[in-house]
């Protein structure tokens, strides 16, 4: 009769224990989603799950929970016949689960988005896409992170407030490709205070102050609009696509929850 290797036995037992913990954690996350979040944001509408429409990418363990990189890639280009109309990001275990909703048009070229989020606890991050036919599709990723929404404010908040609302665009490459989706990045100076963070000097909790609306247009035509909340990191930056048909004005307009509004324009040439 073959003897069981004690070390192998304990390794297998440990692996099974870790696996069961992961399953329980994932189960708890689904309970939160099915127990109220789905109904709150989408009612009884059916949501297909998978990566046929969009695919979300996020780190399994966030190095900095206040700056977790999140990207969503669409599986087909935007066209007048078929396009992603809205992409909603939900973070199950954040104090405010709604992170952002991005609205695209066929002129977006691709309904891809990349940004950095604050994650307050181990959680599923969900990307729910609505196509122009009204159907919903979801891809979710589980991320290990904690404390992102209450992470301390930067040491020089006064300097951050002096830069409030400053913006710039970054474009990929030296030239834009006409009639093709071109990658652009919008960088915004804003501390995006969550209302859960302590001022390191006064030791008082700072009131919430964050960007809650973003609009990007090219030659007056909307490319991307978004509603955002406290989950979006300090100094938000968004990577997105647009299709330039000729030289023109790329314009960003933002508003924060205290009613402050800012705009920035940049001339670009294909």
Mean pLDDT: 89
Cα-atom radius of gyration: 21 Å
Query: The biggest beta sheet, please?
Result: 9 strands, mixed
Termini, distance in Å? 76 Å
Order of helix and strand elements from N to C terminus: HEEEEEEEEHEEEEEEE
Q: Count every helix, treating DSSP H or I runs of 4 or more residues as helices.
A: 2
Please list the strands of the largest sheet in the order they lie side by side: 1-8-7-4-5-12-11-14-15
Overall form: globular
Structural class: alpha+beta
Uncertain segments are 9-26
Count of distinct strands: 15
Tell me the helix content. 10-25%
Report strand %: 35-45%
Overview of this structure, please?
A 9-stranded mixed β-sheet has the order 1-8-7-4-5-12-11-14-15, with helices on one face. It has a 3-stranded antiparallel β-sheet with strand order 2-3-6, with no helix packed on it. A 3-stranded antiparallel β-sheet has the order 9-10-13, with no helix packed on it. The protein is globular, with a radius of gyration of 21 Å. The protein has 270 residues and is of the alpha+beta class. The longest helix is centred in the N-terminal third of the chain and has 37 residues, at 6-42. The protein has helices at 6-42, 157-162; strands spanning 47-49, 54-57, 68-74, 84-91, 98-104, 113-117, 123-131, 136-143, 167-171, 182-188, 211-218, 221-228, 237-242, 248-256, 261-268. Mean pLDDT is 89; it is low at 9-26. The N and C termini lie far apart (76 Å). Strand 7 and strand 8 (136-143) form a beta hairpin.
